[in-house]
Protein 1
Amino acid sequence: MKISEIKERKIIHRPTPDFDLYGKRIYHAYEYYLPYNPGFKGNETQRLFAKWIDMSLFTLIFYYLLHKTVLISVLLSIPWVIVLGSVTEFYFGTTLGKKIFRMKVIDDEGHYPNFRKSLKRNILCLANLYPLFTEQTSRSPYGKKTSTQMNFRMYLNNKICTTYIIKESRMEEIRHLLDLKPTENNRRLID
């Protein structure tokens, strides 16, 4: 079984315009089987900070030990982060920056990605750094306020390579779900 094949049972209660004899609103229950999401909320920001931590380490090495300029040190750190990040994700499932935030990289089978897949997702992370600007409108006592918000699309490399960024604490839960047979998995979700 793969992570992309796991379904999660969700029940959504929607209100109706009707009330019962005691004046309480009547709700309809709708049951859905949605794809299991092993990720966590806010992982884009943590992943961005983890990448900056990895890059800053190599930047400091090039700047202080090899006496390069700051710009050259930053540019030289990019390929080193890509290659060494791929190696550490292959062996340990994490990099130094991800380890600080207690994150792991796994593939669709629940294992650490192989070196080729890890290298591919680390090269594709350069496309993630291209920001997406959105306009956001909010109300204030003085009228509408419009601001521009910058978002990073930190999910593209995982989507293309079918890898997932998870918290270390969820690793056991995911492995348990993957060890179950499909019929047992569906029965477990229904209970």
Protein 2
Amino acid sequence: MKTLIIFTHPNHHSLSYSFLQTTIQGLRDNPNKQEIEVLDLYAESFDPLLVFNEHKRRRDMHLDPNLEKYRNQLLWAERIVLIYPIWWGRPPAMLLGYIDQMFASNFAYRENGGLLPEGLLKGRSVVCISVMKGPTLYPLFWLNNAHKTLMRKALFRYVGIKEVKFFEFGGMEKPGGKQVKKLEQIYRYFKAIVQ
């Protein structure tokens, strides 16, 4: 199984980074052969800014030579794992900038004249691992599950990815916030994952 892990946090001493390391270790300890590639958006100095002008048009974004490496990573991957914090009820702007550029027309989807476009990234699965300071049920009751709706429906289903799993951990900045227990849960999940 080919797994692309997209990590989005500027601090390598963060809990999010611990989830990255735990995910990698779980995949390495998985008895099924796992190929792993990690994209650390901050370490990579990925530029999240969209630029459109007379030289760079939105309809040509799927051909941008500066993004070819990242397009190839997504095409290679059978599983995409996103690891990020929840800030202001949503993923970081760095990750959203990556999504804006990478999930472009004629690469991730194609207009077909219907109500919804043809998703071009079918056959892949996604796992989203996110941590937040607030309580776990805060996004559900206060924000009407906006984060999960954004990721599952507005993004992944739109591009043809139907299998999306969430690990959304709240209360992670509290002492005794069960951080070790959650890390162990992620390790066990990836150690046992088949597809």
Protein 3
Amino acid sequence: MMDVTAVPTPDRNDENFWTAAAALVEPPWSEPDQGDAFTMDERVHDAVRALAERISTRAQAYRAADKPLDPVLMASPDAQLALLRALYEAKQSVERLAESAATVAGRSGANYAQLGAAWGGIKRQSARLKWPHAVVRKAASESIPFHHAGGTAAVHHDVDADAWWYTATGADRRETESEPVHRTYAEAIAGATEYLLAHALPGRQAPAGD
């Protein structure tokens, strides 16, 4: 296990909080072990199975007949095809979330080599092709949206004020637009993330990294 005692852990009210938040910790992660991988498989399977049972024609027929679906019926070929379709949706979700995470990391200081390392060790050029808008010049005004807690936000740079601001739409459909008062991209991202979490739907409050 890596030594994490050197990583600063200021509280939110500490004057160095945002400085610490904007500094890239190296290494950014520890490698997941086999137990972590198995746990991830189980959680993904739970989520995908729930979707498969909602979209399965056989399961819909049992619900229409007001009958319980025997779990063994999920092994039928058509139910497994519904599971396969649900797995595809999970893959699409992963791609969207990966793009969001890469954009936030890249806009906050990570480079394409680091993004590629995080994405299973792909090369820097492959990471650039995968997420062409993730890493940009510090003063760029182009804004790329990211998703969190069921909502969407985008962080913008006000060149004249040399400050950052954000727009956000929560999962509850409420919208906001901040003033250009944030000193860094990371600070604006944090403000947008807090808004999205505050306006998540019940039961959808996501942990960090969602």
Protein 4
Amino acid sequence: MDTIHCAIDGWVDTIPVPGPHGTVSFDLVVRLADNDALDDAPDTIITCTSSDPRITHELLNGIQPGDLLRATGTLVQPPAPGEPARLTADALEVLETALIPVLSDMVMDRHGDYCVVFDADRDQVPVFNEYGQWVGLADNPDAIATLIDIHERVNGGDA
């Protein structure tokens, strides 16, 4: 199996999960540098693990889906085509935090160029544009489309 020591920049795909013996695992979504030139090029998922106590603590307490990280460590090529590559991280750097915090009792969803956050304890739905800027608070899920329509009319169609 081929291994290489490298640094990978990617977005945290799901909430990091504790593993056995003080380890943690998480997936990074990696976009190729020239991915914009390729219309339908898929993102790559890199499965990462670490047993470093500092990294484990940070991943379990301070990292959320959507954070942009640089994970440095040993990359092992997948054993079979179609399986994800695996990185054992020995260093971690937060390059950028997610625009909207994701709490465990909330669900984020997209409506075109807009992001909404559903909270099971509330009828109201916060709405943000694609840049994470506040758009408004819809009274309920059925009112999201109306709020977005008003926002686009006021702002000339710009999200």
